[in-house]
Amino acid sequence: MQRILKSALVALWFMVLTFPLLAIKINPVSKTVSWHFDRVAMLAVGIFVLALGWDWCFSRKNRGLPVFSLPQNITARMSAIANNMALRRASLFFIVGALVAMPLTSSLYQTNIMISALLYVMLALGLNIVVGLAGQLVLGYAAFYAVGAYTYGILFQHFGLGFWACLPLGGVFAVLFGLGLGFPVLRLRGDYLAIVTLGFGEIVRLSLQNWSDLTGGPAGIANIPRPGLFGVDLSLEGSTTYIYYLVLAAVFLTVLVIGRLRNSRVGLALKALREDEIACEAMGINLMRIKLSAFALGSCWAGFAGVIFAAKTTFINPSSFTFMDSCMILSMVVLGGMGSISGVAIAAMILILAPEYLRAFSEYRMLIFGLIMVLMMIFRPQGLVSGEKLTYRISALLAKGKGGAA
Amino acid sequence: MDFQYFLELFFGGLTRGSIYALIALGYTLVYGIIELINFAHGEVYMIGAFTALIVAGLLGFTGFPAAGILVVAALAAVIWCAAYGYTLEKVAYKPLRGAPRLSPLISAIGMSIFLQNYVLLSQTSDFVPFPRLLPEFDFLEYIGYIMGPSDFLILVTSTCTMVALTCFIRYTKMGKAMRATAQNRKMAMLLGIDADRIISLTFIVGSALAAIGGVLIASHMGQVNFNIGFLAGMKAFTAAVLGGIGSLPGAMLGGMVLGLCESFTTGYISGNYEDVLAFGILIVILIFRPDGILGKAKVQKV
Predict the structure, then answer these.
(1) In this complex, do A18 and B123 lie within 8 Å of one another by their Cβ atoms?
(2) Residue A9 pLDDT more than 70?
(3) Do B61 and A31 touch (CB under 8 A)?
(4) What's the pLDDT band for A104 if we cut at 50, 70, 90?
(5) What are the pLDDT digits (tens) for A253-300?
(6) Does the CA dihedral A129-A134-A137-A139 come out positive or negative?
(7) How many domains does chain A fold into?
(8) What number of CA atoms fall less than 13 Å from residue A316's CA on the CB side?
(9) What CA–CA distance (Å, rounded) separates B96 from A312?
């Protein structure tokens, strides 16, 4: 009862709070006012329900329980399924098969959406190296994406270089920018680093916008060619399918590389950096080298993705690389779970595909992205799929040691 | 003539700078107490401008006198922004106290995106003209060529606000409690200060200052948009860092310096890279002197 009363009060508070902005809309040109009381009423109901849920979530959180958890026997069964290698392999094959078959069975429009979703998977996985593994909050990731895209655009426009020459170059330039950003910010940590990278991202965007001779200014660069396939002339559909497979291959490569990276020497050093910078240095890890490699590893994927993006849209301008795009990629990492590959990939897919297919929600896309970031931080900071920690069981190691000795 | 141009730029810079300073104070107050960059602060400022616009529009239809409208609209903006600031803290930051340092920051970014889109969806994505409410002062005519009435009003209002804030922090009991909490929260709590209340108070005061800034700039520029908060917030943050984050006089000084820098570069070099300049200053300061002009260096403890 007390909870209901409290929630009602909260709803009332929010009604008052949002009243001027939600309910009153003024048209200063025609001097008319339109009232939207229905919106406030809807919001009040929504807030009432949310406040109840909020309270419930907190009471669980304070008791040390996870906010969302399934009954014990279901979780046990699910982890048994997850650990079943044969099933895992089968589902992996199924997913790969579905992804490979996708452009053959669906329309051009859907293939195009899927391409952008896969590009974002790539971007999110790249950012995941910097934010998820190394714990360095970078808010200007779209800048590296822009560097990749503009590498292709500019090199094509001024030197006539093709896609395949630009793909590695885009990665190289993005890495150079990553190192150029990483070097001066070595000493910074946490929030200051975040702000500096944000500033860097904005500077890159504003430079692209103002340096008209090189970048075409706000109008951008148009008529960028699609990638060629050994000189074969492809139709629009053919080249879209071709780009789809390119992106898919790039995503597989990304997953493969990051999966191998994660438990490598460098990957473990990155995780150590995330957990505690000072302890990491005390363990004999060269902080400068490891931070720079985090920046380099993260930015190169954005560079590749940028080149592919330019080839896909055939047109680039600075407004595709704003702070909001950086935030979108960050919210994928946050939702998916920092450091987890599958989680981040799934989150990127959800966040790109859901607004496309649920048209009613597409207006609220950024609103929901913002909300996700807040709620995830409060209730499930580890993300949908928490990044698996590498664990060694002493008994297993001993058994192995014995086996080796015998 | 040249000197006159210089004066024009100088006062233009001061006007701009005093707005930055007003917003920067909010960043600095919050950072001083909970060491959090309140990313959504720029959005509070934008909401202030919108609230004032709506109230002014409503009153404008009833035929209220212009000066009265300005006062009522500003009051409404201050009250609602304070409420937004309070709610923001309760919803997005308070549950994350004691979490790893990046969590509240990400939450703040999320809140900033949320508020921007909330205004975008509930109001409009276009630039909305803001009514001209600033009164004309006759005695200003003879300096009219360097300073318009809105510049004058902005300078006076922001100076008064800053003086009032300084007095509040320095001489009142609540101000004292705020300073104590900023110095050492645990110790302050041991001395019977309700830290939660002080943190709420900080957000309220900071948001109210941002609202004043929002109303002033909106009536100066003559238009508002859901997007103005981001850039203004970043510039104000630059000002706060420039002066030394956590220090009140630093924020005021930083705002003025940034405003003057921008005004002179725009006037003497080119307006194209005005925003780049602010971000450039921010990066350079953070890298070479992260404690700002007036800040004290902090020792990193293990």
Answers:
(1) no
(2) yes
(3) yes
(4) confident
(5) 998 888 888 888 888 888 888 888 888 888 888 888 888 988 998 899
(6) negative
(7) 2
(8) 29
(9) 41
* A233 close to B (CB below 8 A): no
pLDDT in tens, B110-131: 999 999 888 888 887 778 887 7
> C-alpha dihedral over B14, B19, B22, B26, to 10 degrees?
-130
Contact B128 A28 (CB under 8 A): yes
> pLDDT at position A163, please?
79
**Is B124–A371 a contact, with Cβ atoms under 8 angstroms apart?**
no
Q: What is the pLDDT of residue A388?
A: 58
Comparing C-alpha atoms, which of B231, B241, B237 is closest to residue B288?
B241
* A-B contacts at Cβ under 8 angstroms: 164
Facing A28 at nearest CB: one of B99, B106, B131: B131
Question: What domain range includes position A172?
Answer: 95-379
Q: Residue B146 is part of which domain span?
A: 16-288
User: Do A229 and A130 share a structural domain?
Assistant: yes
Angstrom CA distances, A143 to A320, A328, A349, B254, stand at 10, 13, 21, 28
- Quote ipTM for the complex: 0.83
Higher pLDDT among residues A231 and A264, named by residue:
A264
- Nearest by CB to B106, from A188, A207, A373: name it: A373
Q: How far apart are the first and last CA of chain A?
A: 68
Interface of B with A in 34-63 (CB under 8 A): 36-37, 47, 50-51, 53-55, 57-58, 60-61
Overall domain count for chain B:
1
Distances from the Cα of A370 to the Cα of A351, A356, B109, angstroms:
12, 18, 7
Q: Which amino acid is at B206?
A: G
Is the same domain home to A112 and A213? Answer: yes
- For testing the chain A interface, which of B28, B44, B124, B286 should be mutated: the one with the most A CBs within 10 Å? B286
Instruction: Please report the pLDDT score of residue A404 as a whole number.
Output: 46
Candidates A377, A380, A382: best to mutate against B (most CBs of B within 10 A) is A377
Looking at beta carbons, which residues of chain A come within 8 Å of B273? 206, 210
Is it the case that residue B301 has pLDDT exceeding 50?
no
pLDDT over threshold 70, residue A96: yes
- Could you report the per-residue pLDDT of B257-285, keeping only the tens digit for each? 998 988 888 888 777 777 788 888 888 88
Pair A203, A352 in one domain: yes
**Whole-structure pTM value:** 0.86
Q: A286 and A177, same structural domain? A: yes
- Closest approach of A28 to chain B, Cα-based (Å): 7
- In one-letter notation, the amino acid at residue B181 is T
pLDDT at B134: 66
